[in-house]
Amino acid sequence: MEAAEARHDDVIGWFEHVSENACKVQSETLRRILELNSGVEYLKKWLGTVDVEKMDDYTLETLFSSLVPIVSHADLDPYIQRIADGETSPLLTQEPITVLSLSSGTTEGRQKYVPFTRHSAQTTLQIFRLSAAFRSRFYPIREGGRILEFIYAGKEFKTLGGLTVGTATAHYYASEEFKTKQEITKSFTCSPQEVISGGDFGQCTYCHLLLGLHYSSQVEFVASAFSYTIVQAFSFFEEIWREICADIKEGSLNSRITLPKLRKAVLALIRPNPSLASHIEETCIELESNLGWCGLIPKLWPNAKFISSIMTGSMLPYLKKLRHYASSLPLVSADYGSTESWIGVNVDPHLPPEDVTFAVIPTFSYFEFIPLYRRQDESDICSDGDFVEDKPVPLSQVKLGQEYELVLTTFTGTD
Q1: Distance CA 38, CA 41 (A)
Q2: Is 151 helix (H, G, I), strand (E, B) or coil?
Q3: Is 135 inside any structural domain?
Q4: 114, 168 in Cβ contact below 8 A?
Q5: What residues contact residue 309 under an 8 Å CB cut-off, 6+ apart?
Q6: Whose C-alpha in 118, 233, 290, 390 is 20 to 30 A from the C-alpha of 175?
């Protein structure tokens, strides 16, 4: 545990250092973004032949804010489409883009392509390390323990230009950084890569649940990208728990699992365990008959310390059902980000999701904040959702209590 504590202290120490020096770090981040992407078509359109290296930080930030406009994803679509079609000249980044992420579509009402680079995977690894460090202050876990993770790489496809397209999580779960994360945090997902990347949601969920129960005594926490996924998985479990019990008892795999790679991977891990199957059966009968499945998670995974997923925003409606399954088990809201970039870490994981606080990580992107003021009508009544925007300010000038819209300038050429 001492080694783990030292790792956690190191990453929190790094975060505290960059946070205390956020103004300087943000200037350095903008400079790094512009230097790494110097000469790309999009920046040349606005900055021309400006020599970034010869400017001091204040001049650079002022020039950038005055010359490079704030745009929506629609403004960048033509560039990203050219990349998707196979154009290899540096349009948005100097780093070659071979992979595109597909956003959820919650922001603009439609899915969109977002460049995914090595930097994207590295920042994901860093925020997971940082998040684990903050959680360990309140919910320390055993090294070598398991995580019941409902994670799905999903299906990928190719663009006309041969670029791979999938969700950002799919790219991350397939990356070396995902393997590194497990080794660094000493916490290992219950399911092998074949299940994570299986491509069939129902079959993969069944395997996640089966393997989660196979390793039930080792599970330290339950997690997923989004809270609705956990709710969906356990709603499914209410229907198929008898089949899972039979598989655990016999060391078999139900015929509903038809994908050969899933069958091979799961059957290589499980063995007949009649005593565990009997315990699960007794527990499920009690949960179903007397408790309405309340407390399902701590009943079946008695060593679990907490549940972690994104629980804010559009995930809030799922908290009631998630709390039903969790009973007194703490709900920890995962970190704040978008397909374009991670933004902030949950620094107080002991707080309920409704009160969560995120702290911006100033090395991940260059952040600007547009102040929003509620418009008032003639009767001096504020109109919900109707705002007046002011000029954007940098992270160092953000004021407590003021509402803002966040603007990102990322290493992958999007803002």
Answers
A1: 9
A2: coil
A3: yes
A4: yes
A5: 223, 224, 225, 226, 227, 229, 230, 315, 333, 334
A6: 233
